[in-house]
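note to self — DONT lose this again. spent like an hour looking for the file last time. sequence + predicted structure for the chain T wanted, 270 res
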Amino acid sequence: MEYWSVGVRITASEINDNQGMVPEEFFQAIWRERRRYVREGRIKQPHPWRVALSDGKVSRHALIEYVKNRYYFLANINRKDAQVIANCPISDARRLLLRKYIDEEGQDVAGGQLGPHYDMWLKVSDALGVPRAVMQSFEEVLPVYRYTVDAVFNFAKHQTWLEGVAATYATEGRMWKRYTPKAEHNEEGLLGEGEAWTRHYGLPKDALLFFNVHRDANDEHGDINEAILKKYCVTAEQQEKALAAARFRWENQETRSDIIYRYFVVGENV
């Protein structure tokens, strides 16, 4: 017998009263739901913004505006992570989350060498000639983009800590590829963002530290979030809320990409 739980089809063997799915089935359910979003066009894979960037069809003005807007996301996302940690009553889970937080906020605060990931993004804006005062004032961030970023923080603040972890997990790096058949990746011929910057837009490789460091860190952070969900997100109610949180982040992420594409690619051609 099959049931539908928050839009995800599960079998009777997957759920029993308030006992949730076993972890492997739960993770499969999350990424099965993402695949459904892609099939229905609710996630564009790849997004037109990524395609335009990969093909070298983004103007310098659009690049600069993208860099300014994305910096607002990068500079504020750790406030979301800090809120998840503050909401978490379990010390072992907090300590795992703190490792991720320190990676993003800067390993140098704990004696490491790397600084904050958002400061690495300033190397990109430096290479484009955008003054740091402009970047750090956030005055030129689109209000609608600012709203979507603030929504991520407010979600983490007002929902449970597990929902905050699940929302982060849903958009963490390349986790989706781990659970999605390669035939569905739709990335053949698509350049990575860092590669596109150097090939089409002339940015020096030393300006692109962010992409190398952030990519590798995101994979580790995805593993941390998965380990937490495996141990603590175990009831049917928790898992349903986690699935809803994943949907929220997918839709939020897609909206941010839509904003950049429509304002700075489509808008320039109108």
